[in-house]
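The following block was generated as part of the benchmark described in Methods. Ligand: MTE.
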Amino acid sequence: MNKIKSSEITPEHLYLSRRDFLKSMGIVSASAAILAACGMAPESTPEALAAAASDAQPTLPPSSSATDELGDPLNSFEDITNYNNYYEFTTDKERVADLANGYPTSPWEVQVGGLVNNPKTFSIDDLRKFEIEERIYRLRCVEAWSMVIPWMGFPLSKLLAEVQPKAEAKYVRFETIYDPEGMPGFKANPWYQWPYVEGLRIDEAMHDLTILSTGLYGKDLLPQSGAPVRLVVPWKYGFKSIKSIVKIDLVTEMPTSLWMAAAPNEYGFYANVNPTVDHPRWSQASERRIGEFGRSETLMFNGYEAEVAHLYAGMDLTANF
Ligand code: MTE
């Protein structure tokens, strides 16, 4: 896994700006020529295009690598932040960014309690005190699309260590903010059992691959990505990676997630990426990597089999889907 300390991350302003990069690649003038040929308005001069490009969010690093450990290229910042699942805003992946734009995510608190010796409420500043690392992970949605994302975050195990789970705690339950006035998806999709809830077994929650993310591409998370803090569990289908968390509880019983409540025969508690267990309505054998043509084979545990298969030794993965 790629890991870098926050102190080793080059400040954003030291990287080439998108404009400089485009210029260096000769892309600014080339795209200006293409747009001109398509009959764009006269203000689409190379200078105007370059200025517009420099206002856009960068598609470039900061990131420690251009690929994941398998050599798969990172998705662009634009892909990652403009094709989202966040049903509290909308079920239309390409409209989440617009509807979430400006959603207030500060101040914010995450209450951590339940079966713990030291319940604690974390502010965003408290969360930023954890050592932030970069983790380049594949995200495989249950809908069979995927991306490669350079997350910034820290292992969930470090936060759990601070609250000291009791021996009886067997599962971790996570809850997203419930804000029907501020997020239009609650009223548009009243049949879901809100708030969005997810869960992990405690050994899954303590696994080093499981992180709480506060950023990506070296920037704070945008609302559509689950600002200010979300879970990322890379060997499980993306719906486990719950966004905009306000509550974390240590519990004895397996939590019922929003998706388990909605369609228990389609979305199980474990939701481990598994190309041999199809969704009742589609195959899980292959996936569409956003930004690429064609499909690629889905990997067992999303390519993290060596790290996590032992967690499920002896379990029937077809029954425990
Ligand atoms: N968290 C909340 N609160 N609401 C959601 O609708 N969608 C899930 C997950 N977390 C979702 C959520 C699904 S289905 C996926 S695939 C991922 O978020 C998508 O994360 P992304 O939009 O950052 O790619």
